[in-house]
Design a protein that fits this description.
This protein has six helices and ten strands; from the N terminus they run H-H-E-E-E-E-H-E-E-E-E-H-H-H-E-E. 23% of the residues are buried. The radius of gyration is 29 Å and the shape is elongated. The protein is an alpha+beta fold. A four-stranded antiparallel sheet has the order 1-2-3-4. The chain has a four-stranded antiparallel sheet with strand order 5-6-7-8, with no helix packed on it. It has a two-stranded antiparallel sheet with strand order 9-10. Bound molecules: calcium ion (2 copies). One calcium ion (CA) binds next to loops.
């Protein structure tokens, strides 16, 4: 066997190995490329008749309210998730531009119950735009703040604050808290908490010795003052601290 024949044999050997490797990759690739049905993948689509989540934000076009006259017609209205009854399961609150808002209680096992009517959180106003959840009165139960557009075209209404009564019913209290804003609201952000934390941290860093009396002072802060502080920064529906 001469030198040329040896090289040809080695070349054929490498080609065979390369072919077997490609064949293996092809087999693995084909086996992993089975066609997927609709709803399969990282997430699984659950139908409304299984979950009970049948909310739909259906906007009705009219001569006075449409996307040509109102650019934000199809912007949607928003959804919030929070544990409103403190049972460890996140509940869902959907906002409808023109229809009824919906509160769904999480029953576990991806099953939800529409408790909007008995909770009293359907919302008012004919163009609702957003929702923010915050425990505004610090009682351990999450409250709901709904933003509403008014004063433009046929839009009427005021922002609403639904205070959680702790038994899956709510009491609309926006006027009581000074948060019944009427205007071009889109979405509220309660940034006061961030500002307060920043302020506390700053104080702790720069005035470490005064830490104890300062915290004591904060604990004594009348929580009823907080909404007034928050609202003082609101301009055209946007909270600006
Ligand atoms: Ca819950
Ligand atoms: Ca609360």
């Amino acid at each position: 066997m001469n030198y040329v024949n040896i090289n040809l044999m080695l070349f054929a050997k490498y080609i065979l190995r390369y072919f077997i490797l490609l064949l293996g990759i092809g087999v693995v690739g084909l086996s992993s490329c089975k066609p997927q049905k609709t709803g399969e993948g990282v997430f699984k689509l659950l139908p409304a008749n299984e979950t009970g989540l049948s909310f739909e934000n259906r906007n009705v076009v009219s001569d006075s309210v449409n996307v040509l006259d109102y650019l934000y017609f199809y912007n949607g209205a928003g959804v919030a998730t929070a544990d409103f009854n403190n049972d460890g399961l996140p509940d869902l609150y959907f906002v409808s531009n023109q229809g009824s808002n919906k509160l769904y209680l999480n029953k576990g096992g991806m099953k939800f119950e529409d408790i909007t009517d008995k909770a009293g959180v359907a919302g008012t106003g004919n163009w609702k735009t957003g929702v923010t959840v915050i425990d505004i009165n610090g009682d351990g139960f999450k409250d709901i703040y709904v933003s509403v557009v008014s004063g433009y075209k046929t839009f009427k209404g005021k922002n609403q604050l639904y205070i959680n009564n702790g038994n899956l019913t709510f009491t609309e209290s926006a006027a009581k808290y000074g948060l019944d804003f009427a205007g071009l609201s889109t979405q509220a952000s309660f940034l006061i908490m961030i500002r307060m934390v920043t302020w506390i941290c700053s104080c702790l860093l720069h005035q470490f010795i005064a830490m104890i009396p300062m915290v004591t002072q904060l604990k004594g802060l009348n929580t009823a003052m907080m909404p007034a502080i928050i609202f003082s920064g609101m301009t055209m529906g946007t909270l600006q601290m």
